[in-house]
Amino acid sequence: MNEQLQELVNATQETLGLNNHLLKRYHFFRETNHFNETIYMMNMEWSPNDADSLHEDFNTAGTAVVDVNFHTRDIRRIVFVQDVNNADHSMYPAAAAKEQVIEWIEDMTGLTFGRQFLIAQEEEQAMSFGAAVDNIPVSPTGTIEVTFNDDGVLTLFSIDGVFPNEEHIEWEPFALTPDKYEPIAMEQCQLLQLPDQTQEKWLSIYGIGEVFITNDAERTITFSMGAGRNSFVTKDNILRWDKPLKGEFERKEMDFSPEVTLETALQKEPHPDTIPLTNDEVEACEKEVLRFMRIVYPEESGKRKLTGIYLQNGYIIAEMKHAEDEMKRALDMKVKLVIERDTLTAMNYIDQDMLYEAFKHFGIADEVVISQEDAFDKLREHLEVDPVYVYDSERERYIMCGKLDCAYGVNAVTGEVVALNTL
Predict the structure, then answer these.
(1) Which of 25, 63, 20 is nearest to 42 (CA)?
(2) Strand order from edge to edge, sheet including 345-351
(3) How far is 46 from 65, CA to CA, in rounded Å?
């Protein structure tokens, strides 16, 4: 076994008290973080010494499945199969001792409670924590989860996301007042078509779109969530053509697996998604999207628009949304076209319109009566603007913002204020 690999295996076994376990399997995978850095992870499966050797194809009770950063040795995830922890219990906190749990997390992560993470939720057999700086949440955020079995023994630990420290923060007091954020909230007040399961019809509802507002109220920052958001190139191109293209689109197999070899991990090769899209690549993808649409959706000229292009596991993904159909736009249904980066040709696609089939029989929405201004007046008292430190890619720092949110909407026909989570 490679010397560096053996050292990591030994350190993991010692740290987690897996002295009565054998390393059954391991593999490597890579990913990117919010700062567009490449991270190499090692996944290990530690089987109890007394496990039945006949069951090689699956993990028996008590197996410890561990994810660890290959280069830093930071433990990212521990899962004990079937909630059976046969490791050295002295290495783990007890469910009943909250302070002990927090101290153990600090030792495992190097984070400081109260300065970098706070309790988000607390139950008898589970605790969750969220990233924070100076008691203020951050975005993108980090989460920590710990779970215990009926005997109070830890059976799961996981840490995901970002936990910045004071060095990453541009300090300033929260200064957003209603006179600053209400004009922006008014712009975010949008008319949507939402499905009502009870009445089996579409409803026209005014709602406030979630957004971060900078502390000076000069600009907004959208939520950046999901794969590929670091590389996301925003587009707003209506897709039009004079005539369709003859022929058929041939789907090709894709491999989105993040697994890599030990050699790749040792060499620290950068993740392909960290290599930015070039202008030439973006232009070529726009042409390929149009070619694809002319073949697969020949009758939909002007009905769809290209909204973004981004990278995911070495592929280029192009997203197309409905340009005109309000109901489908409200459901955020899109076509995702997978483009091979080496050849810049389309390989496969996913059409989320199948989700719409469940609502196809719904009755159309009644004619809108309430104006946007009247709707906003009703929602004004329900606005929530809370301080959040948001990562600004332009400054490469976390800056003070207000998270604009509203849990209520206004029925555009009746004027009734309704809780959005009831729809």
Answers:
(1) 25
(2) 233-238, 304-312, 315-322, 334-340, 345-351
(3) 6
Q: Taking the model in full, what pTM does it have?
A: 0.84
* Distance from C-alpha of 159 to C-alpha of 66, rounded to nearest angstrom: 12
Residues 6 or more apart in contact with residue 203 via CB below 8 angstroms: 193, 194, 195, 196, 365, 411, 413, 423
Bridge partners of 262, per DSSP, are: none
Residue 7, pLDDT > 60, answer: yes
Write the pLDDT tens digit of every residue in 257-267. Answer: 999 999 999 99
**pLDDT(38) > 90:** yes
CA distance 378 to 408: 10
What is the tens place of the pLDDT at every residue in 88-122? 999 999 988 899 999 999 999 999 998 899 999 99
Query: What's the residue count for the chain?
Result: 423
The tokens 């907004």 sit on which residue? 220
Kind of pairing, strands 384-392 and 136-139? parallel
